[in-house]
Amino acid sequence: MNRRGLEDLLDRVQRGEVAVDAALDALRDLPFAELTFAKPDLHRDLRTGHSEVILGTGKSATEIAAIAERLSAHGHNVLVTRLARDDADALRALLPAFRYEEEARLAVLEVSPVPISGKGVILVVTAGTSDRAVAEEAAWTAALAGNAVERLYDVGVAGIHRLLDNRQRLADARVLIVVAGMEGALPSVVGGLVDKPVIAVPTSIGYGASFGGLAALLGMLNSCAAGTVVVNIDNGFGAGMAASRMNHL
Question: Which residue of 32, 34, 84, 241 is surrounded by the most CB atoms within 10 Å?
Fold first, then answer.
């Protein structure tokens, strides 16, 4: 149950529209549900402001559907990350209400529309087109957490005039997520241009000596631009959630 749903239930109990026993039935699965293979956290929205997200990797469509059904029954929108097309098709055969965002590898079951509650715009920036999958994961995650999200793609340091041509968009954003592979230089450049939080996301895009994103990760961790923080390699989801929390402060 999310905060809005709990407030509505308590208001209805106070007004005498819902009996105490009925309210207890509605709350009986708090703080978590018990499945044979998982314990969906139904209390997370009340604690953290966002309901549990399902990592699709390593789970069958049947398992994901069972967790999603339990979450959605309690009023939670459901987000599934890292879901391949074949797995998404199998999931949608079980729960057709899911929609699939292939580039981001996300599946979404929307129980209710998500109002924009963030205080400003989260701008997602990529160095190259090849970084878009991770960037889209970040963008969709932030949007589904109630934020206005904009995108600025393919503005890496190999053609830095493309980034500088968008100085005003950088300045107008409240939080920036900067996604880059190769040597991972772009977050440092952006961090030197703005006075807002910059969340750097290294990607596994690059040639041999990039070591699957390790070179970009180390470069970002050693950034000389103040106010730049770094998430794990290819962790668009983590960046989107961090940006959302910053944008709601």
Answer: 241
